[in-house]
Amino acid sequence: MPKGFLWGSASAAYQIEGAYNEGGKGMSNWDEFVKIPGKTYKETTGEIAVDHYHRFKEDVALMAEMGLKTYRFSISWPRVFPNGRGEVNPEGIQFYEELIDECIKYGIEPMVTLYHWDLPQALQEEYGGWESPKIIDDYVHYATYLFKRFKGKVNYWITINEQNIFTNFGWMTAMHPPGKFNQEKLFYQVNHHVFLAHAKAVVAFKEIIPDGKIGASFAYSPSYGLDCRPMNAMAKLDFDNLKNYWWLDVYAYGRYPKTAYRYLEKKGVAPTVTAEDAALLKEAASLVDFMGVNYYQTTVVEYNPMDGVTPFAEMNTSGKKGTGQVTGEPGVYKNPSNPYLETTDWDWTIDPAGLRYACKEITSRYDLPIVISENGLGAFDEKTTDNAIHDDYRIAYLNAHVYELMRAVEEGSDVWAYCTWSFTDLLSWLNGYQKRYGFVYVDRDEEGGSLDRYKKDSYYWYQEVIRTNGASIEE
Fold first, then answer.
1. Given 374, 404, 446, 447, the catalytic residue
2. How many domains does the chain divide into?
3. In this prediction, what percent of the chain has a pLDDT beyond 70?
4. Of 257, 288, 420, 439, which one has the fewest beta carbons inside 10 Å?
């Protein structure tokens, strides 16, 4: 990779920190949501998670030993502002200050995500959280406090993580908080509020840290048309506008795709966009520094008849391969499985070339630098009696993806960073602790455990990748 490339790894506060009610932290929407029976695998919660709050120095030391160049982590809004706004929690901000200082001590570039899904429950109860435009100023107040606090220490910032996922699961499928089902008009209006919060924060950021780098992270699944039949080619075009460019175009251009907006207008669910909104989105788009990409899989698209599949289907959260179901938009598209690709135990397609495809598409369409803010393999890992974890399947997965990423760079994509998901094992939101992603095995399951850390084979593999700046990657 080019000199100065940021080899990294990533995490999210709710999934690793624990200490959910310690150090003055307020409750988050996730702290409440997981109390609902049946929402998570074996009723797992993030109350303890993998206890990063108390063990962060141990974890950062492991990162330093690996040679990590950047660590992407999120700040928990309710840990900093327990009520969403008002008084800052001194213990909460001190925790992040110490974490950032620990990274800097070892030469690890801190990359901060402002919002990775854990909304202060106080704001959810007060005005419905993201459903109200009131949240825009509360988010910007939170963001600007952090910009000012960590100016000079944090150079890379991500405003929002996977806006397309948390809004879809929160207002369409009821799988994430606030757990609402098929609220399509509200879903698009919520997204509009998130876009405005992102935009207003970007504008404020450039006033506070003019030389800093900021962008959003999008869960990007590039699409392949099923075949060359025009109806399937059209379905792919519509899918891209509704499921990818709806977000990417706003981040990069400051506007919604016209044909998608017209389609939603006809359905009566398009968001209300004022002239002031449009100007703000456009201003922020001119200021973003990079496109953050969370890449896991690609999607196949074919035409979906009016009486075809809906957006609502069973999602595989158990790890029993083949239990995920096909979804789609009636009369527009559906997403069948790809017969040419293997899948994980959670039915996610494994497509290393898709990462290269994503980079080339973003480069051609937006001409923005790229930060790969997440890429990784969730799998069932086993610890042997001598405390070894032989995850050759993860090494193969990551090697293949990094190889394709290097090809994308050779072909003209400007990629600044590659952050694996994740550094340690963690709570996988709906999937519990059995779905492991990390280079470091954490001794815990759905019932608990010692929380001791053990290096997997992939830890040493990535250590060599970083040491050689990618020269150790195999074709």
1. 374
2. 1
3. 100
4. 257
